[in-house]
Design brief:
It comes from Neptunomonas qingdaonensis. It is a multi-pass membrane protein. About 20% of the residues lie in helices and about 20% in strands. By secondary structure, it is of the alpha+beta class.
Amino acid sequence: MLVFPGNMSKKIKILVAASLFTVISGCANNNSYPPVAEEDRFVQPEYNYVIGAGDSVQIFVWGNAELSTSVTVRPDGKITTNLVEDLEASSKTSTELAREIETIYSEYIKNPVVTVIVNGFVTIPDHRIRVVGAGAEPLRLPYSKHMTLLDLMIEVGGLNEFADGNKAVLVRRFDGEQKTYGLRLDSLLKDGDITANLALKPGDIVIIPEAWF
């Protein structure tokens, strides 16, 4: 509540109150980084899931049940099948891995037909989305096609009580170059301002600072 000296005119009181409100509002919403350009806010990238260390893969070899198996991708990104040791799986799509297994197995059986199914999605680090700082539950998770900032914040349970959501930033890489953008998480989550929402891309990092007051 504002308290003014008794000798101050009503007009001056109004001007002071308006100025103070502007300053406070500016502090609450000020973000030194530019927002994502409007034309890029909901552009969805071309995306195919790639296998990463920790993923579980099922390998079916049609007509050869003894060669079918389920394995977990090792920390070095490789798997061992019933015929091949140390086969690189990380950074490949399930289709790419299936075709490679077919090529290798063709040395042992005639016209192999292989299907690879991925379970327990982990993917490679470059394709994970990360939330750090004052989220209710900081985490990392695989990118999903059509994932938005609002989806991500629901996953982390929103902001904690100390978060300064309108000073959060998005760190994104383009062709090896890192760029930082301002976010308005308070506007999105507390005010329901959907214009603060945006599409995410593989590898995005959201950093949420704590408020100074």
